[in-house]
Amino acid sequence: MAILSRYRPLLSAFGAIAILFLGGSAFAQNNDNVVVSTQKVNDRYDVFVENRNPYDITLTLNIRGTNISTSKRTPYKNVYAPATRRLALQIFIDDKKKGFNVNTDYTWFMGDVNARHDDSFIYDLPYRRGETYKLGQGYGGEFSHTGKSYYALDFMLPEETPVLAARKGVVIMAHGESDRGGPSRKYSEDSNYIVIRHNDGTLGEYAHLKRDGVLVDIGQKVRKGEKIGLSGNTGFSSGPHLHFTVTKVTEDGTSQSLPFKFRAKRGVVTEPREGEDYTAI
């Protein structure tokens, strides 16, 4: 039972702006909700990055041209927080008596490449106190928990079981309109899911929710233990369950699952075992 390996949270894009013997004061390129713009200030050009998304992005700027220099060596990679506009770098004309040209292209993907998981944090189980469910697939599960999805857990929740936030954070992505699922990769794009950003920049992913089983909105702050959804059987799945994993984005823009520990009736679990029952407290 598995979440599809790439279920839409890792958005990425690219764009470019060109400055040729500039006569105006500002230029901008809007790609989805990321805007890269330049503003003329005296004899230099300031390059700004505006992130209008509800999540962090990692953006790389590459600047090429003639008769120019930059305040930072490029390609220049940096992380931009949600709903922010920041100065990325500055472009200077080397010889102001001569013409110049600049080509600035950029790529970006969702997530904070500098995020570091708080390994001391103890997660709650993602279901109600007193309820007990079997772990259908654990770390390294042969069905689908391999490669970068190694550290994922599948709890055997019946359909419509309330799903709770295992850690507080902000909802950055959600999809709840699918009614398709089955044990085939052809359903990989059909999972309903919720993605929550934690305060250390990592992401909590809850997948295979039922249709209309997403009970939170993008941008909403959620508390640990808050009801966020209803379990289901959508996407690449061999039966009703909840797929839960903690991830971070890597340098190549893909998602890497991370080991984590959670609190259960038996104590703090650091090595969850497939086939065992876990009771939430």
What's the SSE pattern?
EEEEEEEEEEEEEEEEEEEEEEEEE
Report on the biggest sheet.
11 strands, antiparallel
Measured by DSSP, the beta-strand proportion falls in over 45%
Mean pLDDT: 87
Distance between the termini: 25 Å
Number of helices: 0
Parts with pLDDT < 50 across at least 5 consecutive residues: 1-10, 17-29
* Mass-distribution shape: elongated
Name the structural class: mainly beta
What is the total tally of β strands?
A: 25
Helix percent reads under 10%
Q: What is the alpha-carbon Rg in Å?
A: 22 Å
Structure characteristics:
eleven-stranded antiparallel sheet, mainly beta, 281 residues, single chain, 51% strand, 25 strands
Structural commentary:
By secondary structure, the chain is mostly beta strands. It contains no helices and 25 strands. It has strands spanning 12-20, 26-31, 34-41, 44-51, 57-66, 68-70, 76-80, 84-93, 101-110, 122-124, 132-137, 152-155, 162-164, 169-175, 181-182, 192-197, 203-214, 221-222, 227-231, 235-236, 242-249, 255-258, 261-264, 267-269, 277-279. The strands form 5 sheets. Strands 11, 12, 13, 14, 16, 17, 18, 19, 21, 22 and 25 form an 11-stranded antiparallel β-sheet that branches. Strands 2-3-4-8-6 form a 5-stranded antiparallel β-sheet, with no helix packed on it. The model is unreliable at 1-10 and 17-29 (pLDDT under 50).
